[in-house]
Each structure stands twice: as C-alpha cells, then as structure tokens.
Design a protein that fits this description.
Layout lengths: L26 H5 L8 E2 L2 H10 L3 E6 L4 H11 L2 H10 L1 E6 L4 H15 L6 E5 L5 E5 L13 H14 L1 H18 L11 H14 L16 H14 L2 H16 L13 E2 L7 E2 L2 E2 H18 L2 H18 L9 E2 L2 E2 L2 E2 L7 H8 L1 H11 L19 H8 L3 H19 L7 E2 L2 E2 H18 L6 H25 L7 E5 L2 E5 L2 H18 L2 H18 L31 H16 L2 H18 L7 H11 L3 E6 L5 H10 L6 E6 L21 E6 L2 E2 L6 H13 L2
Helix pairs in contact: 4-6, 9-10, 9-11, 9-23, 11-12, 11-17, 13-14, 15-16, 17-18, 17-19, 18-19, 19-20, 19-21, 21-22, 21-23, 22-23, 24-25
C-alpha cells in the first residue's frame, strides 16, 4: 500500500478485522487498527469500560515515527496469544503522544518516577480510575537484556491485580500524591539579575564538547534553543566565546550524518557522539527550530553556509512535509519497509552508477563514501572535506567544486526519490506548525534584505507565502468559535484539545509573521491567543499550566516547565508575552511573564540546556528593548528604506509599520504623525520615544546610540 504522496506504509495485517482505532485520524493509531489487540482510543468510552468491567488499563503511548514502537507492535501487539491475554485481563488504550501531550506528560512523569527513565513506546498500567501503578517502555516478546517479556509482565500484573489489588491501588495513590507534590514549583523568587545570564553562558561554554560539537555524549541531540541563546549573547553582549561555541555547534551538525546532505533536512538525533549515525526519523519541530537558528546565525555573521543550510531545511519542510492545505505534516518515519534508515544510506557502487566514475570520485572525497561503508556496510553521507580543501588538492577553483557537488547532490536526490520512502505522519499539529511559521516568517524577512540577490529574494517570497498559507489554514481549521485551538488537523477533522504550547507557539509564529509582513491580522490573532493563555492557562501562584482550566481532569494537572526537544509551553508563552508587551505597552502581559520567570529561576543556571528557552525569556525580560514604529505606506520605497535600516537580526528590537491614513490595532503605532508627509520612524523604549526621523541613516544612528548606551 502507499499513501497518496507515494510514501510506503509499513506493512499492516489488513486481512484482520479492524479494532476501535479504525475511526481515528492519527496515523499512529491507524497503524494499530488491524492489531488483534482490542485497542480503544483514550476517552470517556474507554475509561467507563474499565470501571464497568473493573479491569486495570494498559495504556500504550507512542508516535508514528518511533522505531521501537513499530518493533513492539510487530513482536507483541500483532501476536495472537499476547493479544488474547491482554484483551482478557486489561482494557487496552492506545494514545498518540503528539495528539495528547497532556497524557504523555503526566504518565511519563509517573514512569520516570517508577523506573528512573522513560521513552517510547511507553507502557503504563493504571487502575480503572486512571492512577498508574506500574510502567516501563519497550518490553520484548522474549526475555532478554534483563527485561522480562511483555507477556510475562501481563501475566504477573494480572495475577497481582487478582491477589494484591489493594497494594497496587495504594501504590497508585502514593505515586499520584508524589507527582502532585513534585509538580509544585518553588514560591516566586526575586527577579533574575543580569549575572545569571553571564553564569549560564560560562557554564554552557565550559560544558561544550569542542572536539565533536554539542553537549553530552551518545546519543547526541541538537540543541537549537541553547545555540539560539548563545547567539543572542554573542550579538547583544559582544560575547566572542559564545559565538565560537555557536559556530562550532552549527558546523558540526551541518557536516554530520544527522544532516541529510542531499535533502537538506535534519534527522532527530545522532546515536553516536560525532553526529555521524542518526536516528533517522525527521521531525517538523527539529527542522523548524534548526532552520531558524542557522538563519539567525547567517544574519548575525554573514556566513553564507548557514544561509544555505537554513534554506535547505526549509525547502525540506516544504517538499517532504508540506500538505495540500498549506500546513505541515508532523514527521517522516525512521524506518523504510521495516529497515531503519533504508532510504538514506548508500553503497559506493550505487553512487558510481548514478554519477559516473569521475563525479563519483569527487563526491566520495567530499562525503566520506567508501566501498566498506561507515555504518553496517553502507555509507551515511557526511561532509568530510570542504570545497576549499578539495580545490587545493585538485587544482580547481572552489566555486567549480561547489557547482559540481551541487549537481551531484541533485542527481542523487532524484535517484533516492525513486526508492521506497519512509511513511509520513500526516497530521498537522498547531504547536509544531507555529514553530514552522516562525521559521518561514523570519526567513522571508531576513532573506529579503538584499534586493539585488535574486536567489535570496525568490526564497524569501517562497517562504513568506508558505508562512501565510500555513497560518491561514491553522486558524481556519483549528481555531474554534471561542478563540480556542484544537491540537491536531487531519482529513478535514480537528481533534484533541489545544494545550498551552499550541496557543503559545502559534502566537509566537504569528508575531514573527507580523514582523515579516506587517499585516495586522496576524498581530490581532496572536494577541487573542495570548489573552486566552492568560484567561485559561495561568496559575494564580505564577506561571502556566499546560492544560486549560476546563480541560479533561487527569490525576494531575500537568505543568512541565522544562524545555525538551521542543520549548515548554510555559517558556514559549513567556517569550511571546514579553514580545507582545513591547508592541502594546500593557503591563499585564509583562507581569504574567515575569511571574512565570520567577518560578523557574532556581533551576536555570543549574540545568541551562534544559531551560534554554527560559534563558532567552530572561534575556528578553532584562533587555532594554528598542521599539521601532514606522509610519508610512508599507510598499513605499522610503518606508522600505527605513525598514531596511531597522531590520536584521536584532533580538532586543521589535518593529511595527503602519499606514498614516489608517487606524492601527498595534498600540505602538498610535498617535505617531509623519514629518512633512514623509515616512517617519520613531525609536522608543517603554513607549517613550526619541525625536522622529525620516532619514534611514539617522535611524541607524539612533539605534546604534541606544545600543551603546546599554
């Protein structure tokens, strides 16, 4: 079978009847719709069934691109004997963690408390009331590596439920109480001081692996939020050491096998410490965040390679994750026809067949291709020699080398496209689309700064259109009449309640889109979403819950402040509220953000990579942000000249542009007349403005003077 876009599905037992997952839209749930396990989706029907039958719940949580989720399904969930025992003694419930991050969060916390670790597939056993009493991750179909088989686990727990039920329920009650206590953050602390940022920067530089790039050993994960924070420090505080770390980290990932050297996207993480061997799934959120930090690094340093990497990642999103409605799919699978990385690895002979001996030789030198391979007899492409090194060795201009390699990559990508492709999780998630909209919007804004660069201008137009189309589709499909978001969109159906990260990430993306277009509908929509955050998600004691006050009641109301592969909803909301406060002058937005920051201050310096988006929020909260209001017709050349003087990568600056003849929804633009009818710029701080100017050079001088005075 193949999806409409030609990507092969993982083989399914379609000769079996479907279970109760068949009516779902989640590709992950649909992958299990033919299992002999009598799966039910999470919801009132499943929970009521558990109570009526008085059976414990087996809760299995995973996602479509998860390799070990597929393994456990093949080994256990498709096994008739295992399924028969599971159906008889438990109520099996299957959850897509990407559709229900609230469930994933509270039950992952329980598994981590019980086992000291976590991951997916997550396997949790609950009382009929939903309290966890036993959990783990992947269980094999036979005992190995000190793990019992999954059937052994089922048999043991079924017996314990019959004979020791009271003890299991007591365990569940104690665990729930412990998790509720752990979820309580410290009382609001004093506001952070600037030396906190200095300390975090120093610790990150010291703990950085300068030899291989990045933080930690194997497995090694991209850290786009950490790199973004350090880039901010490099630009705003003149920290040369921070910039060196950023460059080394970005270069190592761009050269490594984690970066799809042909397709431009990034894989999820590296299984080794050298960025060579990836876990091959490709996620929307990774590529959106990495594209954005590479883009910002190019804007800050002028390093052309970073721009190329950013454009490649964004084009990957458009090409491989773009959906017909303009939104972006969640991920590509790690496996192809059950083989991890099958689409992406090469034998040397295959490359010679596509390129011919001469071009294959050059390509092999550049990308480390050998007959022996570098992983399980095949080659994962990585950049091992630069254009300059190859040019020096071959006596050719570096530009000629670059052109030949670009042509070779295009031919190999075309050939790779004829292979079986990874399955795609085709649902559109509000939060992840918000991250993508922000990246595309920043690309449209920054790439358009040089009108003489035709390629950059074409990319800017392409990415700007993508950002607007995605924003329109998400707002049309996922925003309800109350101004609340749903979580997921697929097959014309919205599903799942929107959580904090959905509202906050989309708001941040829309604010970035406003700065790229100055179309005020995006500003209005972002402000409405953040008003919802304050009304429905705020914790009266400070910070934000991850679920709304009228959300389904779970055994604990999640409030996860730690930044993981994606920013926490709380840190995203804090950054967006601080930015909104600069355009509106409304203290309630800043106050809510500062109260949230004050609840996490004790953790930030101790665990900076786990609170990297919070570091960006603290940096913004301590900054003397320049608010630039430009009054003039946005398309007029003189207005564009002022905008060019104020634009670029400036983390401590926001810009608003409005027509002199129209009332604006952006308070920063209110009561700002033009001088002599010419487009006019105001540089303000806290809505207190310097003398207005009409000359771009005068605007540059004011911004430089303001920055120097800090």
């Amino acid at each position: 079978m193949s999806q409409p876009d030609g990507r092969a599905h993982r083989p399914a037992s379609i000769d079996r009847p479907t279970n109760r997952l068949a009516g779902e839209t989640s590709p992950y749930l649909l992958q299990h719709a033919h299992n002999p396990v009598d799966w039910m989706p999470w919801g009132p029907d499943a929970l009521t069934r558990a109570k009526l039958l008085d059976k414990p719940i087996f809760l299995s949580i995973g996602y479509a691109a998860c390799h070990w989720c597929h393994v456990m399904e093949r080994e256990s969930f498709e096994d008739e004997a295992t399924a028969r025992f599971l159906n008889e003694h438990f109520v099996p419930i299957k959850v897509d963690r990407e559709e229900r991050p609230d469930l994933d969060q509270v039950y992952m916390a329980a598994v981590q408390a019980m086992t000291g670790g976590g991951g997916w597939p997550m396997s949790v056993f609950l009382t009929p009331e939903g309290r966890p009493f036993y959990g783990g991750t992947y269980f094999p179909n036979e005992p190995r590596h000190s793990l019992p088989s999954f059937l052994q686990v089922l048999q043991t727990l079924a017996g314990a439920w019959r004979t020791q039920r009271g003890e299991l329920e007591e365990v569940g009650g104690r665990l729930a109480a412990t998790l509720l206590e752990q979820a309580t953050l410290p009382a609001i602390q004093p506001a952070p001081r600037p030396d906190l940022l200095d300390a975090a920067t120093t610790l990150l530089a010291r703990s950085f692996d300068a030899r291989t790039g990045g933080w930690g050993g194997a497995p090694k994960f991209p850290q786009p939020m950490t790199l973004e924070f350090l880039l901010r420090r490099a630009v705003t505080a003149g920290d040369a050491a921070a910039l060196a770390v950023v460059r080394a980290g970005l270069d190592a990932m761009a050269d490594g096998g984690i970066h799809d050297q042909l397709g431009g996207g990034f894989h999820r993480y590296a299984t080794d410490a050298n960025w060579l061997v990836p876990h091959f799934e490709q996620m929307l959120y990774d590529n959106a965040q990495l594209a954005r930090v590479y883009l910002h690094a190019w804007a800050a340093t002028g390093e052309a390679r970073y721009r190329e990497v950013a454009i490649g990642a964004l084009d990957f999103i458009l090409r491989d994750l773009g959906r017909d409605d303009g939104t972006f799919a969640a991920s590509l699978d790690a496996d192809t026809d059950g083989i991890e990385g099958g689409t992406f690895t090469w034998h040397a002979g295959e490359i010679r067949e596509v390129l011919g001996d001469a071009e294959a030789g050059l390509f092999a030198e550049a990308y480390g291709v050998t007959d022996e391979g570098n992983w399980e007899g095949t080659t994962i492409l990585s950049r091992v020699r630069s254009n300059a090194e190859l040019a020096q060795a071959g006596g050719l201009p570096a530009r000629a080398i670059g052109e030949r390699l670009a042509a070779a990559r295009a031919r190999l990508l075309e050939a790779r496209g004829r292979r079986p492709q990874p399955a795609r999780d085709d649902k559109g998630l509000a939060a992840w689309n918000g991250l993508a909209i922000a990246a595309f919007a920043d690309a449209a804004r920054l790439l358009a700064r040089d009108p003489d660069d035709e390629a950059a201008m074409a990319a800017a137009a392409r990415f700007g259109a993508a950002a607007e189309r995605a924003a329109e589709a998400i707002l049309a499909g996922l925003l309800d009449e109350r101004g609340r978001l749903h979580r997921s969109w697929k097959d014309g159906r919205a599903s799942g309640p929107g959580v904090l990260e959905d509202h906050a990430a989309l708001a941040e993306g829309l604010l970035a889109l406003y700065e790229a277009t100055f179309d005020e509908r995006w500003f209005v929509a972002a402000r409405s979403l953040l008003d919802t955050v304050l009304a429905r998600f705020a914790d009266p004691t400070g910070g934000f819950f991850d679920t709304a006050d009228d959300h389904e009641r779970l055994f604990a109301r999640p409030k996860d402040v730690q930044d993981n592969a994606t920013p926490s909803g709380s840190s995203l909301a804090t950054v967006a509220l601080l930015r909104l406060a600069t355009w509106t002058g409304e203290g309630r937005y800043r106050t809510a953000a500062e109260r949230a920051i004050a609840t996490i201050t004790p953790f930030v310096v101790r665990y900076p990579t786990a609170f990297a988006m919070w570091l960006q929020a603290i940096d913004l909260s301590l900054a003397d942000v320049a608010e630039v209001a430009i009054i003039g017709e946005p398309t007029e050349a003189a207005t564009q000249a002022l905008l060019g003087a104020a634009g670029g990568y400036a983390p401590h600056r926001v810009i608003a542009v409005g027509s002199p003849d129209e009332a604006s929804a952006v308070p920063l633009l209110a009561d700002r007349p033009t001088l002599g009818g010419r487009p006019t710029a105001y540089v303000c701080r806290g809505f207190a403005c310097r003398a207005p100017v009409t000359d771009p050079e005068a605007l540059r001088e004011q911004l430089a003077e303001a920055a120097a005075a800090l």
